[in-house]
Amino acid sequence: MSEAAGGKRPAEEALEEAAAEEGPPRPPADAADGEQDDEDTVGPQPPKPKKRKVCVASSSCWCSFCCCTCLLLCMMLLHFAAIAASLHSITMMSCLQVLPFEQQYLDALPSAQMYEKSYMHRDTVTHVVATPTDFIITGSADGHLKFWKKQEQGVEFVKHYRSHIGAVDGLAASHDGSLCVSISRDRSVKVYDVLGFDMIVMMKLPYTPGAAEWIFKKGDAASKLAISDLNSPAIHIYDVASGSEEPIASLSSLHASPVAVMRFNAAANTVISSDAKGFIEYWSCEDFKHPAGAVKFTMKMDTDLFALARAKTSARSLEVSRDGTQFAAFCADSRVRVWRFATGKLRRTYDESLEAAHELQKSGAQQFALDDMDFGRRWVVAAAGAWRHTPLPIPTPNALFDESGNFLLLPSLLGIKVINLATNALPRLLGRPENTERFLRIALWQGLPKKIRPGMPEMKLPERDPTLVALAYKKQRLYIFTKREPADAEDASMGRDVFNEKPSTDELLAAEAGATSALPRGACVHTTKGDITIRLFPDECPRTIENFTTHAANGYYDNVIFHRVIKGFMLQTGDPLGDGTGGESIWGGEFEDEFRPTLRHDRPGILSMANAGPNTNGSQFFITTVPTPWLDNKHTVFGRVVKGMDVVSLIEKVKTDRTDKPVDDVKIVNIDVLDAVAES
Q1: Looking at residue 40, what is its pLDDT?
Q2: Residues 482, 567: one domain?
Q3: Shared domain check, 661 and 531
Q4: Which of 564, 599, 617, 620 does the annotation list as catalytic?
Q5: Are 434 and 415 in contact, with CB atoms under 8 Å apart?
Q6: pLDDT tens digits for 524-552?
Q7: What is the predicted pLDDT for the residue at 374?
Q8: pLDDT of residue 518
Q9: Is the residue at 573 inside a domain?
Q10: What are 252-308's pLDDT values in tens digits?
Q11: Does 316 map to a domain?
Q12: Other C-beta atoms lying within 10 Å of the C-beta of residue 291
């Protein structure tokens, strides 16, 4: 996180800090008087070119014509050689660095920098699939599924299912888009008819499912469904159309570890599966053996299919291109690897780790570098999330291909990258301005929303509306990226974040109880330098007071240091990380500002929330030591020191380093919440 507004730091300090601190800007300083005069550069000059002595043959010299002719021929030969070399170079560059019809492929993808709309679930949205039958299906951590129908512009809600008692742990749509399956740790399997958006099959498994994938093509007699066992290497194959809950086959010797992900390559009629140890296997959907006719290798040692096992990592997700010639894995080591299917050889590897993002930020590349404040906030979300190892139900990152197979779309710290696999270039980056969401999982729809029926030539062909649906870390929303920016939408005045979920009865009762209960009106901050008693303003800032006092009562602020102390300005604390980049609200994430015209930064001893911009309050706060009117309507004032200004002065005078951090730590021992305090 960085400073909120106004205050500037030297560039060298901004580059040294991985993420700048959040908090109030320094007081405005007068501009320096005088300007430096420009001076011409002084230094050694390059040596002057030597004059060549030119001998002109006299008219009596018999060889003058011959010499001139030879010279002319040599010059012509050199000229033609240069042209040939140039043409060869251009040809090679065209073959290596140019993708024919690149712009046409890009025109079939979303292009807006910001998401156009977002819709709600009741809990964190963890899974999303897009079907060729124009449906988008999402699943959430509370076990609920929602069906959305793609319209000529945007999507429309269709149906809601309370599918599982626990979280949705797997969601897959068939290759033809006719069927969908969801699985959960409660050992239940639900199958849906997508076109009729109806649940048609329910199964109870004798084992805990790990992954599920449809392994049939349109026209096949059996609707085969593969489900892996979370606790064993077995993969069980079911024929859903038969109505039987008994598997038609069980594969127990294919893998040595539990299978984490599976993907069906319809073009090759082959399944790609990867287990917890990183071993990747191909197997046929017909006889469940090695698909000899679909690949160009006989031994896995001739391929790069051991790349994950050698790197001691595993695939978190697998995606196959539409033509079946390549597949991509988003791996637990935050690297995205792309293989050619037929040869099993690695084509590309992309490093999306936090370390790589940090190095890219330090390089200062204009295309990728973010503002220090923005980068710091994204870094904190990514580092605190640690979705590679967390048990929380959050979206699993994935990387997918466009319909041409020439572009790879993958979510990253910077946004959603659109990578040209032919040139290895990055022609498009979606969601870069969206600094409050860390997009993790995506689904892409590139079809036409309606078919033109025969016998109706007067109907106008609908325009393509490519749509990318993105899920974010710990967010209850699905985000829709199209070619339209939010301001271009017809109903932009209604806001792009649609509140399509009503609060439950329990939430209403809890909100009512919270509104009627009396919030604390004071607090005593016990520090290693002494006590500071504060009067709070719950009537004016109820959300801020609830956040502060709950954190205090829960011990969130215990042993937290004052990480930023500026003499003649303020003292900042409340970050459990101690560097100005951490902390969150009691609700998780951030909450809105509560500005009031009666509460101003008009005196020393004002208690105010630190932030990284509008509506980004977390846990950090500061106490002013002088009037700071430039902070009004930028930071929420929620308290005032009534006793202990001498302690504030002591902390203000401590020795600090060049980042304003005290050399000797000054800590909050703990904070006592008080029902009321007497005005001094």
Answers
A1: 39
A2: no
A3: yes
A4: 564
A5: yes
A6: 999 999 999 999 999 899 999 999 999 99
A7: 72
A8: 72
A9: yes
A10: 999 999 999 999 999 999 999 999 999 999 999 999 999 988 999 989 999 999 999
A11: no
A12: 18
My answer on whether 570 and 618 are in the same domain is yes
264: annotated active-site residue:
no
Catalytic residue among 144, 428, 441, 635: 635
At 453 the pLDDT is 47
Closest C-alpha to 238, from 210, 263, 214: 214
Q: Which of 408, 409, 468, 631 is labelled catalytic?
A: 631
Residues 611 and 495 in one domain: no
What gap in Å lies between CA 172 and CA 129, rounded to an integer? 7
- Which of the residues 361, 406, 547, 611 is marked catalytic? 611
| pLDDT tens for each residue of 583-604 | 999 988 899 999 988 899 999 9
Supply the CATH number for residue 655's domain: 2.40.100.10
User: Is residue 62 scored above 70 in pLDDT?
Assistant: no
Instruction: Look at residues 265, 169, 154 and name the one whose alpha carbon lies nearest to residue 210.
Output: 169
E-assigned strands of 60-102?
A: none
Answer yes or no: pTM beyond 0.70: no
> Dihedral (C-alpha) 411, 412, 415, 420: value to the nearest 10 degrees?
-70
> Does the annotation count 577 as an active-site position?
no
Reported as type and span, the H/E element at residue 329 is: strand 326-331
Residue keyed to tokens 């290596």 = 96
Residue 416 sits in which domain range? 102-154+393-448+463-515
**Which long-range contacts link 626-629 to residues 24+ away (Cβ below 8 Å)?**
626/27, 626/568, 626/569, 627/601, 627/602, 627/603, 628/24, 628/27, 628/569, 628/570, 628/601, 629/600, 629/601, 629/602
Q: For residue 569, indicate whether it is catalytic.
A: yes
Q: What is the total count of domains within the chain?
A: 2
Q: Does 435 qualify as catalytic in the annotation?
A: no
pLDDT of 329 > 50? The answer is yes
Task: Tell me what pLDDT residue 508 has.
Answer: 59
Active-site residue (options: 420, 435, 572, 620): 572
Asked, for residue 348, whether it belongs to a domain, the answer is no
Set 569, 591, 621, 638: catalytic member: 569
Mean pLDDT of the chain: 83
Do 530 and 573 fall within a single domain?
yes
The Cα–Cα gap between 298 and 280 comes to 15
pLDDT at 167: 93
- Residue 564 designated active-site: yes
Question: Among residues 264, 622, 638, 640, which one is catalytic?
Answer: 622
Same domain, 480 and 543: no
Write the DSSP string, 336-370.
EEEEETTT--EEEEEE-SHHHHHHHHHHT-TTT--
In a shared domain, residues 611 and 471: no
User: Do 543 and 443 share a structural domain?
Assistant: no
Residue 556 domain flag: yes
